[in-house]
Structure formats: C-alpha cells, structure tokens
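[Automated response] Your request has been received and processed.

Submitted sequence:
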Amino acid sequence: MRSSTTFGGRSESGQPCDDLVRALLAGTLMNGSGDPTRTLVVLGAPCSGKTQFAYRALLEGIRTFGDTRAVMTVSGRVAADALGNEAIRALGAVSQARPVTTMSALAFRAITAVRSAEGKALPRLLNGAEQDALLRLVVAEHIQHARSGDECPTCELLREYFAQDSWADTVCDPVSQQGARAGANLSGVSGRGAASESTSLAIFTKGISDAFIIQLRDIISRINELGLRESDEQPLIGRLHTIAGATGTSGAGMGPQAKRLDVQWRLAFALRQEYAAAIERNYPGQYRLDPSMLLVEGALAVPSLSGEDLPELIVVDDAQDLTLAGLAFLEQATGAGARLLIVNDPDESVQAFRGSHPEYALGRLLSAEGVFHAAVGTLDKPEQGGYRNLVVSRVSLDIAFEEQLDMPIPERPWKNAVVPGSYPIASINTETSDGSITDHTQDGSVGTRLYASANEELEAVVAAIKAEHLDHGRVWNDMAVIAHDNATVRAFGERLRRDGVPVRYSSVTTPLKDEPFVQGLFALIELAQVRLRGASAVNDARFVGTPDTGAAGRDNIARLAAFIRSRVRMVMGSPLITARRKSGKSPARIEPVELAMQSLVSLSTVIRQQTAGKTGQTSDTGNAMGTVHVEDVGNTGGVGADSAAQPRNEAPLRFLEQHWGALRDALVQAGEQDSQASPEATSNETTEPPALTLDAMYLLLTCPQAAHGAGTHEEENEDASVQVLGALSSISRHDADIRAFGNLWRIVGEIASGITRLDDTKPVYVLSLAWERCHVATAWQTAALVNSQEGRAANDRLDVAMRLFDYASGAGAGGDITTFFRKVRSMRIEADSLAKVAPIDQAVTLTTPAGSGGRHWPLVWIVAMQQDVWPNLMPRNTMFGGEDLDDLVLHGTLPSLDHGAHRDERLTAVLHNEQKGLLVALTRASEHVMLTAVRSDDLIPSDFLLRYLPERFDGSDVGGSAAGETAGGDVADGQGAGMAAGGETAVAQSGTDMPVLDAHLDAMCTDVRGLVAAARITLARNTGDTETERHARKDAYKTLTMLKEHGVLSADPRNWSFLTAVPTVPENNGEHTEPAADVQISVRQQGEQAGQGEQHNPNEVKLSPSSVDGLWACPVCWMMDNQFAGPRPGGVQASIGTIVHQIAQEASQNWHLDAPDNQQGETEDQRIAAISDQMMARYQELRVDPATVSDPVDRYTLLYKDAQVSTMLGNIASYFVKSNDPEYAIRRGGKDTEPIEVGKLESAECEKEFNAKFTLSDIAEAYNRVKAVTVPATAAEIGAIMGTLVGGWPEGMSDDLTIRLSGRIDREEHRSVNGNQVIRLIDYKTGNKPDVKGIFNDLQLVCYQLGLAYPSEGARLGETSQPLVAQSELFHVSAHATPAESYAPETLYQPPLFVDGHLNDHEFSDRYHYRNPEKFYDYPRNGESPVGVREELWKNFTAVSASTQIAWALAMIARVFYAGAALRSERIVAHPQKAHLAYCDGNGICPACAREINTVFETRKI
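Generated structure:
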C-alpha cells in the first residue's frame, strides 16, 4: 500500500458505516478523494462484528435489488451454510438456493451461466485425488522416457532440475525402482490384453515420490491463483533474466541462485501445460477444471454474463484471504457494473499458504489507479476488558504490515485498541509492599496449562472436555479444539472418539487407499480375477509384475503365490471377514490359519520321509523323525495304508500333493508357452508329486480348476480348494479363524462366478457385486445406530463405502476395474469432494486456524503450543521457488537475488503469518480459551506463550516428564528373547524303555504345536545317560531341528522362556551337538557346576540391574510386582523392545554393520540408509502383527510402537555410521567445554553377560587406593558414609552384605582414543525418555560398570589394570540419533565409577549446556560426620570429594547396596523416588506411593 493512501468513512468524513452502505446501494457513494465509486471497503478489528455487518448489508441489498441480485461470499462452506440458512429464515423465502456462498462457488456460477447460454459442456471440478493421479501420470511419462532413453525437452529440464542424469531415481521411491525398470519391457513380452493395464506407465506412477507431487501441485495452484496465463510465462522468465543480468536468451551470465529459479520456473510452467493437456486428454468431451483455476476462468466469464446473471451487490466477507485471481474476478465484476462491499482485516488472514496477500490486495482496493478506488469505512473497536482481550490486543498490535504504510500501528483501523500492558507488552501483575505478586489475570477468560508429556496433555484436554459436558451441561457444539496442523487435530479427535465424544472434522483425512475396508474389497476382487484366469494368471502382469522368460519364468509362480498371500492377508485384516467366537464376532486372524497350513506342510514332509524310509531311501532327516508315528494325523483313518485301497480316508495329503503337481505343471506349461521356452526346461522333472508348501496351498485355493483331474479316483478329482479347506478343518474343526478363512474363499468363488455373468464390467458394477457378496451392509447399518466404539467404526466404514461408490460412479468411472484400482491406489491426498458423510447435530469441532475462520465457540482449547510447531518458521514452497514467483508478479522485483536482508524479510513474513493464525485462534472463543503446551527435555513451549502471556510464562524450567522403560536384557529377570510356545510345562520323570512316544504324546502330534510340545516333554523326561535316553533326546532334537528349518520359531530353544542356557544333547562319544542354537553348557551340567566350590552365604543377595532400579525407585512396588504376584505376560512394548535389541545385536555381531570400514566409498547418508534398510528388512521378519493381538489397548499400543520402529532402527544406523567419524561429538559449546572423544571402534560385544560379586570391603579398598586419601576407611566406615548418601540404610543392611549382580550389557564397545584402549557401554531404550538426572544417574549403567569391575571369575578391580569405562550411556532410539543426547550428542553420558583401579577422583567434565554438575547430582549432602566414622576420616573424605566425583560414585554404588538390603529387610520405611511417583500404577495400593493406608475403619496418612 502506498503511503499516500487515506482512509475514508468514519475515520475521515465521520459517516457511520451503515450510511456508507446505503450510499453504495443508492449509487451515491464517494471515496476519500470525492470521486464516485462502486466499491466500499470496511475495516475492522477482530471481534468487531464484521461478519454481522456484512450479513445485514446482504439483507439490505436483497430488499433493495431482489433476492437473486445480491449475494454474499465467506471463506468456508460451513460458515456459508449457517449464514445462508439464517438469511432465508430472516427473509422468509428467497429464489436463489444459496444467498451466502464462497468466492469460488460464485465464480462457478458465472462459468456455468455463460457455458449454459452457449450450449457448451458444463464445468465440473477435479477433486484433490484426481489432481494427484493426473500429476503422477504426467511425471510418470517422463520417467518412462528416461528409462527408455527417448527424452523430451521436459525430461531435459528435469535432469537440469535434479542436477543429475539419474534424476528418475530421485523422483521415484526406491521400493518401486525394480518393478519400474522391468516394466519398461512389458510391451515386448506378451500381446495379452490383461497385461495392458500394468504398463510401465502404471508401474512408474505408483513409485513417484509423494513430496515431489505435493510440491508440484502447490506450485501449479500458486501459478493459477496468481492469475497467470500461458502467455505470461515467457515474459516472467525474461524479467528474471533481466534482473539477474543474463547476457543472452539462454540465461548465460546469471548467478547460481538465478539459474536455479530459471530452471524451477521453466519446469513448473512446462509441467503445468502438460497437466492441463492431461486433463483434456483424460476427460474428453468434458469441461473439467482444477479448483485453483475457478477464479481465473470465472474472471474471463464475467464480461459475458447477461444482466440478470450478474449480481447488483456482492458482499465479500473475510476479504483478507483473497488471492490475486479472486481480486481479478472482483475487478471484472465491478467493471461489469456490480457493487462491491468488502469487509477486511489483514491481520486475520489464514490462507497465505494458498496464495493470499492481504496487504497487497488492500492496497489494490484503495489505490487511486485501477477500477476499485474504494471508499473506506471502519467499524468500532470491540470492548477491551478482560485478560483474553488483553492477550488478543498484544498479538494484534505485534503484527506488522507487509507493505509500506505510513500510519502508526495503534491507529490502523484493523488493530485492537491499546490497553495497559499491550503496547508495549508488559506484565499487568503488580508487586505489593510485602513483596508478594498480585495476579490480575484470573478473570476466567484465559486458562493455561503446561504438561510433562504430549500424552498427558492429550488426556487432560479430553478429560476437561468431557467434564464440561457431563458436569456443567455444555453441549458438544459449544466446544472446539484448535491445533496448528492436521496431524495434531486427528490425534485429539481419535482420542475423543475413543471415549465416545462425537467429533467434527473440517475435512476427510484418510485417502481411500488406506481404508482397510477398501483394501479388503479390492483384494477380494483381485483374488476372483486370479481364479478366473486360472493357470494363465502366472503370465498376467497384474499379478506377477513383469513376466520373466525362459527357465527363470518359474519365479513367476512364486510371485503369483506372494501376490495371492498378500491379498489374503488384506482381506483377513479387513472388517469384511470376521470370526464368530463364543464371546461374539471379532476380527479374523490369518496367523492361526497359516500355522495350521504349515502343520499340513510339515506332516506331508514327514509322510514323504517315512515312505522313503520304507523303500530304503532313508535320509538323515528322515531318521530324525523315524520314531514319530503319524498314521493318524490329518485324517480320520490312516495315512500309512495303501492309498489305492482307501483313497478318501487314508491319503488326503497325498491327494493334495497330486493336485499340486497338476497345478504346478499347468503353471509351468502356461509360462513356457508364453515365453516360448525350450522343451529341455522340464526334462529333469520326476514323476514323484512335488512336496506341499505354504505357497502351494495358496495356489490350490485360488486356482482349483487348474488342478482338476489330477487323480484316478472320483474323490481325488474333488475341487482342490475344498480339499485344502477340509484338511484345515480336520486339524481344528471348531477354530473360528479357519471358518472365517473358509468364508473368504466362498466369497471369492461367488465374486468370480458373478463377474462372468455381468453384462457390464464397469468398476461400479464389479464393486457392487463384491459388496453384496460380503453381506456386511445390514450388520454395519444396525451397528451404526448404537453410539459405541463399534457403532462409530461401522458408521465410518459406511461413510467410506459412500465415498468409494461415489467416486466409482463419477470421476473414477473411466476404464476397467484394474484401472480403477490403479487410480485409487495412486491417491496420496484427501479430497473434500469425496467426503459424502452424514452431518452430526452435536459434536466437538476439531480444526486448524485456517478452518476456523468465521466461526466462534464459547469454549476453545488451543493445544500443542510448542516451539517449532507454533510458530513453524520453516520456509515454504522452496522446491519450485513459489515465494520468489510471488515477489516478481506482485512487485516486479526479486529480493532473493539481493544478498542483503532477504532471508530475514522472508522469515519475518512467515512469522507474521503464524501470528495471524494465533490471533484467529484466540478470537474464536467467546467465553473462555485454554492454551496448553508440553515442557520436557524434548519439547519446549512456544515463544508466543512467553511473549504474549508474560504473567503466566516467564521462561523458567519446568520439570521433565517421568518415563518408564520396558526392555529386556537382564538374565536374572527370567525374561527370554521370545514368548513361550503355547505355555507348555516340562514334566521331569525317569526315562522310558523305548525311544517311542507313549499314547498321550502320540495324541499330541496332530499339529506343529503338538510336535514341539512332545519333543520338549521328551527332552525333559529323558535326562539320564542310558543309551535309550540319549537316543530319545537325539530324536527329539532332530525333530525340533527339522521344524525350525521349516520356519517354526517355537521349535528353536532360543525362543523358549525361563531357560538360563540353551539345552544341548550329548552324543555317544560324550561330546555335545548344537542342532538348533549356539551351545554354551547343558542344563544339567550348568546346575552341577553352579554348586561346585560354593556354599550358600546367608548374607549374599542376588540382584539384576532392573531389580536394582526397581528397588531403589520403590521397594514396596517392586516387591508387590515381583515377589507377591505370579508370572506376568510381557507387554507389547516390551516385545518391540526385544526385537529392536535383537536386530541391533545381529547388525553388529553377525553383519558387522557398525564396522568403520563398512561400505567404504559411499556417502554418509547412503551408508545410513543401507544399514537402516537391512535392519528394517529383518524387523519385517520378526515383527508381531498387530492383527494377532486381541486386546484393543495392546493392539493400538503395538501399532503406535510399530510405527516408531523405522525411526528407532534409523537412529541406530545413524549412530553406527556417525560414531566412527573423527569429529563425532567433539567439543561443543566453545573452548571452555571439555571435548567428548569417543575414539575409533575396534570391536563390540552385544548382549554380553556378566556375573559380579562384591562387598563393602571391595568398595573401601577402591576408596583407599585414591592417592589423596591419607586416612584409610574400613568397610564399616565406608558403609556409614554411603548410608548418608542414600538417606539411611534399610534394616537388612550389614557390613558383610555381599552383592551378586548378573545381567546382560546391550552393547560394550572397545575403542581406541589417542592410542589408549577404552570401553563404552550402551544401553538401548525404546520407551519414554526420563529427565536429565534420571539418565545421568541410571542404575542399570551403574550395575554394568560394577559388573566389569568385580567379575565373579577373572581379574578384579585393583588386581590388574582394566580398560577405562569412558562413557556409559542410555540410547533412547525413538527420540534421538545419538546416545545420551540433550542439546548435543553424548552430553548426558554417565562418567566412570572407577579410574586407574580406584574410585573416580577426577573433576566433573563440562558438557555443552551442562557446566555445573549440580544439574546432574541428586544425592543428599550432609556436613556432619556420620555415626561410626572417625573425625579425621570424615575431614579427609570431605576434602578429597570436594572437587571430585568420588561422592557421586559412592552414592551410585550405595544405591545398589540399598537395593540388596531392602530385599533382605522384613520391615522397611520406603521413600519412593519422584520419577517413580510420576508413573506409578500402584498408587492407592502401595502405601508408600499413596502416602496413606486405607482400611475399613480409617485412612491413615503416612
């Protein structure tokens, strides 16, 4: 806005705004210069009644010009509907359906009217999903060009843009690279029509990077919103060249930044033109518009409107969100004779990310040049009483104007009035004469809360909303939650819904492709397609990708099986298939079904081996099963008899093998016919039926017709799928999951049969057929009537069905069903036009500032007010230079090419937009607004809170959140690496006479689980040294080995719970074999050795690191959980932690991914990505499928943790690579901070077991060896000193107490630092992160150090030189990429307890941000000499420990002795630690944590 601009209306002429409106309607309105004008701009501060003023003007316009000649536009459809209904009620009846609408809808009306009059096709909008799909097709064409080597000019631009020849690898996700490259050869493989739907173009489309498409869509929308036509593109490029000083048309002579803008814009313009062409090509005969083109096309249509189609009055509310295209539309409208009333507040603009420029638009409206030259009126500023209005005033007056404006900020019409404490910002609290503070903010208009964690904030807000409704009678519509981003909105919404609170979102947030119901429905249809294709499906690129040729085409069979298996999992994981259990319907699980199928596979293998044994072909593996009789397994008669004599009852597995042989031959033949393979490819085939596999059974279920006619008996020619399902039923006839599995294949058969009878196979008809065959509509509709979690889920699924069928019958109708699948699966974004959902009468609104414009609620919660979230100052639209394009179009300049203050200007503009969002959020509440944030080690409250609410926030530290950790690792905890396989109990008794199973065990061998149980029982029973018992053990071991090799995890002894060592089996020569795991020592021998040379010591206490941690935190809670309760199953979080620990171990121990020379020659990022990918692949093999977890809480917890695993493993991979960098963690924070040197990794030991033993005498000796100690201490004296450091000993403490520690160290690193050998201890943590002191003083790390210092066997501390334990660290892999991170890597490392054979007498080493050790130390310090300690000893101890870490080291060791003494105590006065109280789940049960004892007579405080 130019400085000469003046404001008219009340501010200049004294006229009230209502009089200005009357003058506008009468055609007598004059602007500030005295010239007539048809445009009135009314400015007002937040909450000044702008919308109601505009609404009253609309009613006056309708009364003046008629009900079809006046219209009002607002920023959102919800507000438009509400005001429109209000206007209709006020007027009684109107001829136009929507007197209040949006600017885009008004433009749509104009385009429709013009094209209807011309007899042309009427406009239809592209929804967001369709835009996304078209953009992917545009980019995919160029990727296809790059793969084939036939590049076009746009491809050259892409190469220049990405600055590399292999730019296609950058645009495509790595997962899709292989299939995409192979897809380029599809056209030459086969002439089948079925393959045409899986061209390379389709394959490329699936793999295109989401980020690239999102940014491309944004820049195209930005170009359209700027009102640029194709003819404007080249002049803009020319202007860029002129500003940058180019010496020719090619751009030579420009600087690197200008060259970058040049290629960005030329590429954006080229892709935009191709996008427009793709719209015309894909929708022939239609007039389809990108929504961002509406106002552009509408402006072109306005001059052609007839007199009755052009409104006499257009009232524009929220004009601050006008784009340049919207401004051009209004220019055309007023030029055509329409009157404009524009209501504006530049500070309430929340659409800057969509191209609005409120300051520029206001300048254009008031400029003396152009068609507007508007008159200006100002509304009265709202009353400023109350703390909320003070905060709003502060924010309003703090927002600067982007354009030049020579007017003091307080005098600007859209600013709130200045009140004490708002301009300049100052606290309104006052200090009394006695020094106390008087709080003047407690008027109930603003609430503020800080929480220790994001989860605590979520739970508290949900509880507050429910309390307002239940306790105070608030209706749900009176409340809203506003968050900065949609992810936070969704998190709060889902939590509210879980508690039965109805919620209302501003848009659909989940694409159709991600809905489980849609995935399941699509998978059913694809399985039906495979069934219809039969054996020829092995050549269909829809199912196997790119068919191979020659003998390698056999891989297509495996690909087809993998495709089928993946689709079955989709269906079983969807709500379309449910299992009927005794407790009711519940989700079906594929795992029990596959376990039963694997049982059939294993039994088939056993039968084949027994048959081979009878014919003299016994193998070693056959011997392993030679003593296991399975004649009664899998059938009602017997498998061992002649199958020809009793074909139906005696050989169902043999029949399945014959069916599989026929099907495999058909598949191989189909592949060879297609690839024209030589006949020699099958010359080596034998006549023996192939062995059954899991893939084979899936293929038999899907393609049963291809296996028909395999046998010589009528029963043998029975449908193969029926025989597979029958065999599964014989294993577990009443299993609900197997019955659901059978129902799945019944539906597949019905869909396949129905498709063949369809006259029209358009997508909507095929989908309708599959939907009807699932028979879920009625059940879901009935369930949706009940307001429960199940009812809401059913209602959501029905909404999804509406969206799906609406898309199938409309925008997605073109092409066949496979094309439709491709379109839906390529959707990466949500589209409001797909959101056909039922309205909700009463609901809590969840929205962002952009979605809250024009709406108000009595109660508003503004949540997640975190730094770097609100404000989020990350640069916007950087991929295509969108902000620079704005500068050039609006001002004709490019400040970014001036290397002065451009960066600060751009940052300031982003900050102002964030301030505007906060202003809008604050003004949405009419009664009370609550602002919440989290303060912890990882999350910091927003600077906005500190600036605008100084009375509530002063920047002082707030305690961090407590944390709990559930990760295995301690041997003494009794937790194995896996869960028990069915919970079998080993029963010990004497060996049997014959190495065969008794009748009881024989009956168990009906499935894999039974075989494992029988083998384990055999091991437990046969513990003697007789020949018979050794033979029985050997047989059991070989059975377990064979099952393990076939993928049965429960057959691996390493996965058995409650074992302290892996069992072994002695051979005849007395040596030990290890068929299933690395052998260490046999169970019986271990017990014998443990008792040799040692007698029971009554003063000895056995502890593990985790028990020390728990006993120190609260001995009462620990004993209730571990001594007074039975065994507890491991939680799902612990299972994730166990898997992560295992993968980290394998990555280092087996794959050596942490070696400094690993993948030399690659960049750091490439090495990290490669290691992370390898570990994630292993995780996919080990992960627990959330669908198998029946408990909803555990299931959702597992889903949450499962989503974090990629981050966890990525952080571990990052540490493996970066910790070998010589500059890793070296000096941070200046020259006065000690450097943290970790050295070069030489080796690492993972899951290293330790067994330690020490007494107070050992600790006294370590203290006495300190050079500065001149008065040696006895064990009793050192115990007394340590007692003061823990606040006193429990009654079980004694001077001769012996501590025995045993456990496992996650990672022990041996490194070289300046030629010296040092040790680093790393403990992986997958749970929440504790506070700073909790990390520094972690007792598990203390136990690890003690374990290395005082081993039960070998050299102990002081006896020989030991490597220095330089750092001991917790690695919270879900939160940080480096261990012990806080502000910088390694800053929270735990220092060594011992140095050079004695207690650590070194001074505290400064760390970045932590130069004072008092931020870490949490032990009591007492200046008085403890009882039993000599005065001269105490003085010497005080002097020695004054500036060293001796006192800290003794305090940590004392906590270990405290845990041991507490375990021996009969009575204990517990003092739970603060961190434990924050998450203790025994509150109310544990009297120590509850601070009271509840009885039936009284509640006694303690």
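Summary generated for your ticket: The mean pLDDT is 75. The two ends are 70 Å apart (CA to CA).
If you did not submit this request, please reply to this message.
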